[in-house]
């Protein structure tokens, strides 16, 4: 059984971290992203750096968001169980059913931990696919890259939505809320900058998104 389901995970991270190879151009881009984030202006930090390839910028940030969400969810997995979260929801009005189009074609209703396990494993498989996310210099991104990236980000959003709606009290107890809010704000500004997630998909956290946007000077 997956260690996630047995509940006896010693380490806090949920899936192995996806590393961008040091010395690569993508690594430089990631360093650039971290440096601009440090300036505190998130709207500026998400903008495409001058002269850079949009696909590559989206790829680097998608990997980074996967790692961030991985860590954030890793801190609360003990509170997200089959019994506490029998369905994958984001508040009473939103429930998600899993399908990946290949292994599971017809959406299935499953518990949140199971759904998130499926989701993060699926994302990791996409990120590890060199034909989709080429890590070598000069290897072009495929024509369908943008639609794959949009699907990944749309699904990663659901993990934020679940954490906010169902586990925010645990996040507060762990004093992780500043970390969660900064990560989510960065994520939202990024997807807004490049119109990567449909507004309808963002509905479960609409109020929070409005608040984060209005507080930003």
Q: Could you give me the name of the CATH homologous superfamily?
A: MOB kinase activator
Q: Roughly how much helix do the residues carry, as a percent range?
A: 40-55%
Number of structurally distinct domains: 1
DSSP E strands, number = 2
- The best one-word shape is globular
Structural class: mainly alpha
* Average predicted confidence as pLDDT: 88
Reported for the largest beta sheet, the result is: 2 strands, antiparallel
CATH class equals Mainly Alpha
Strand content: under 5%
CATH topology: Butyryl-CoA Dehydrogenase, subunit A, domain 3
Written account of the structure:
GO terms for molecular function: kinase activity. Keywords: Kinase, Metal-binding, Transferase, Zinc. This is MOB1A kinase. It holds the Pfam family Mob1_phocein. The protein contains eight helices and two strands; from the N terminus they run H-H-H-H-E-E-H-H-H-H. With 217 residues, the chain is mainly α. The protein has a single domain, classed as Butyryl-CoA Dehydrogenase, subunit A, domain 3 (Up-down Bundle). The chain has a two-stranded antiparallel ribbon with strand order 1-2. Helix 4 runs antiparallel to helix 7. The protein is globular and about 50 Å long. The termini are far apart.
Give a summary of the structure in a few sentences:
Pfam families: Mob1_phocein. This protein has helices at 3-6, 25-38, 42-45, 54-76, 112-128, 145-173, 177-193, 206-215, and strands spanning 88-89, 95-96. It is an all-alpha fold.
């Amino acid at each position: 059984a997956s260690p996630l389901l047995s509940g006896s995970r010693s380490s806090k991270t949920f899936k192995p971290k996806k590393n961008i190879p040091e010395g690569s151009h993508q690594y430089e881009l990631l360093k650039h992203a971290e440096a601009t984030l440090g300036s505190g202006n998130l709207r500026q930090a998400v903008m495409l750096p001058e002269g850079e390839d949009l696909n590559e910028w989206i790829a680097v940030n998608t990997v980074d968001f996967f790692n961030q969400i991985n860590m954030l969810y890793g801190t609360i997995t003990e509170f997200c169980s089959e019994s506490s979260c029998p369905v994958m929801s984001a508040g009473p009005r939103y429930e998600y059913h899993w399908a990946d189009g290949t292994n599971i074609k017809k959406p299935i209703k499953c518990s949140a931990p199971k759904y998130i396990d499926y989701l993060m494993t699926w994302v990791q498989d996409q990120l590890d696919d060199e034909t989709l996310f080429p890590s070598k210099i000069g290897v072009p991104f495929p024509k369908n890259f943008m639609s794959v990236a949009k699907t990944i980000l749309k699904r990663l959003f659901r993990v934020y939505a679940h954490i906010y709606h169902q586990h925010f009290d645990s996040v507060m107890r762990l004093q992780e809320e500043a970390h969660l809010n900064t990560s989510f704000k960065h994520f939202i500004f990024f997807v807004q900058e490049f119109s990567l997630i449909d507004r309808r998909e963002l509905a479960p956290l609409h109020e929070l998104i409005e608040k984060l946007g209005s507080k930003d000077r």
